[in-house]
């Protein structure tokens, strides 16, 4: 998978992956509307200009097609990074694309001097994502019960973290 910053040409494909407000909330949180608004999509395009990095949006491509999107946020004052808004093209799910992309984003985050922790939040019903995060070495630290309202439903949200000293760099990357 080729990974680069999210670009203008990725906007239409990403927008087509969601069919409901619940889909968008699962990906982007309760503050993002469905259908995706142009003003929101524009916020995904400024990664290359951020100094220092605050919230970078990455696009993973497989055979030239948008396969996954994920963001890495940085809190430099607290020495942490946050993986967020991870989504895989619905037509490409089940191929470990999120794992591949996230391995690269985790390595990149820990290459930043001063980043001592990476964290993420995931809705507890999203078992596929949870399996991926745990496989990557994230540790479940707690659950915010009924923290998000989606229509009449309330969703629980789990917090996962990985400390620098827990990070195990893949063998291939160590040899490179």
Output the keywords.
7-stranded mixed sheet; alpha+beta; Aminopeptidase; 176 residues; acyltransferase activity; Ribosomal_N-acetyltransferase
Description:
It comes from Erwinia aeris. Keywords: Acyltransferase, Transferase. InterPro entries: Acyl_CoA_acyltransferase, GNAT_dom, Ribosomal_N-acetyltransferase. GO terms for molecular function: acyltransferase activity. It is an enzyme of class 2 (transferase). The chain is α+β, with helices and mostly antiparallel strands. It has one domain: Gcn5-related N-acetyltransferase (GNAT) (Aminopeptidase, 3-Layer(aba) Sandwich), CATH 3.40.630. The chain is built from six helices and seven strands, in the order E-H-H-H-E-E-E-H-E-H-E-E-H. It has helices spanning 11-16, 21-28, 38-43, 97-111, 127-136, 171-175; strands spanning 2-5, 55-62, 65-75, 80-88, 117-123, 139-150, 153-163. The protein has a seven-stranded mixed beta sheet. A hairpin with a 2-residue loop joins strand 2 and strand 3 (65-75). Helix 4 (97-111) packs across helix 5. The longest helix is centred in the middle third of the chain and has 15 residues, at 97-111. The two termini are 17 Å apart.
